[in-house]
């Protein structure tokens, strides 16, 4: 069955889209580029089969200028939940270029964000470069535990040190 219960993309988390819009505006006049991480809808409390685009992954070493953005595939995160790509077009054109189409076959969905980077200044495409509807979902991605200890653990450790 694969990583996700269904490969159907149900939508993009509002927080992921907002991050990408802000990053695109900050990168202007250069292009912005990132990868989209997918999360099984059931892990987000949705009672549906499918995948939600939940986060934008920033790829180290991405090079960009006003007409392109690229990264070496070796620098891409080794992340099995990668489900798509997202990048900006500082000229505001919400259509894939020939170069964009050459990379679209690698994932399920691709989003282009255009200047001036507002809530309506983006369009999603399938791997063939055809426009698709992609709902924006008001969901909270699950919190990932970066550290495997809590504040209680720290306090306990400090008390033990004081008692030594």
Task: Describe the fold and architecture.
One of its GO terms (molecular function) is metal ion binding. This is Mov34/MPN/PAD-1 family protein. It comes from Halovenus rubra. The chain is of the alpha/beta class. It has a single domain, classed as Cytidine Deaminase, domain 2 (3-Layer(aba) Sandwich), CATH 3.40.140.10. It has 3 helices and 10 strands. The chain has helices at residues 14-27, 98-103, 151-162; strands at 9-13, 33-40, 51-57, 63-65, 68-70, 82-89, 109-114, 122-126, 131-132, 136-137. It has an 8-stranded mixed β-sheet. Strands 4-5 form a two-stranded antiparallel ribbon. β6, α2 and β7 (109-114) form a beta-alpha-beta unit. The protein is globular. The protein starts with 8 loop residues before the first strand and ends with a helix. Mean pLDDT is 83; it is low at 1-5.
What is the element layout, followed by pairings?
Blueprint: E1 9-13, H1 14-27, E2 33-40, E3 51-57, E4 63-65, E5 68-70, E6 82-89, H2 98-103, E7 109-114, E8 122-126, E9 131-132, E10 136-137, H3 151-162
